């Protein structure tokens, strides 16, 4: 039996995951995938994945539930991985990719409870000769988006016989450091900042017609041309992602006709020493804006931009803020040629399985491609019926027009959407 470290308390942000999932729900499973074309050595791939697991203790964390309901974590000294190869079913390429998606969903739905087992699965789907999808499903309690990318790049490096980009700092080191920071003067100041920042915030404009929230997969919301938003971002010397943070606020404000909105924004929250370490380093910062009827959307955007910078300075303990039901995530697929050699094969990111079930009321995922911005939404459909989603859609479009073409006041904005 593998030896383990002593029992460790879970971090505050990990506790929030336990609360949201009751310790058994799998909606916090995150996914990442590679499409691999060419000759692939299965034994070599298995050893590469094993090397990454050996070097990243986050992939050896296990969780247990005490009799009193408390969850604690331990680290296995060793975990033996065996390559899991599965066949894609179907006679056409489309049918096979659909089969992979359905199998991936089943993996997300069927594992990673707090029962002492590891919180990940790496599966190789065999589509046809020399055509594969390497799929990883990792629970958010031990990972974040940056870590998932590190995992895949590290597997490729190990497969190619190269040194993996690991700094030597462990996730266990981070947990010890994080617990110390919370008790420090700087940590206490950040907690006070978030308590003040979220004081008085309410989302009573959202009504839940049922007692239990429903969880659903992300679905395509709408698409818009990237060029005008990119030009606006460049003119203001900011990122496209920052523009979309404000657009999410405008969509909420327009759909519900409210002037006080908040969105949760992920922050990588990594110091240099953990730059290449897998783990749950990311935190979530509350970004709150207040609009008045006579304020224009561009004026509000300027406030949003300044507030964003302030929030990010305190993002380390952003999870101590009052929670909001809206979460924003930004993905950039506009990275040019992302093909990477993998022995005699070639690997590239595969986004056909980029799905996750939502745990709050609304998750807005914005993906930047070469020409478009793709908006996906996951929501509780009882609280957000089609008419509300349609109004949010129109709010997004009108807000883009206000920023890139003709500005208007929020009073005019709300009237146009009524």
Automatic annotation (TrEMBL):
In what residue span(s) does the Condensation domain sit? 27-297
Q: Which GO terms describe its cellular component?
A: cytoplasm
One biological-process term from Gene Ontology? Answer: secondary metabolite biosynthetic process
GO molecular function: any one? catalytic activity
Q: Which InterPro entries match?
A: CAT-like_dom_sf, Condensation_dom
Highest taxon, organism lineage: Bacteria
**Coiled-coil intervals, chain numbering:** none
Annotated PANTHER family: FATTY ACID SYNTHASE, NONRIBOSOMAL PEPTIDE SYNTHETASE
Q: What is this protein called?
A: Condensation domain-containing protein
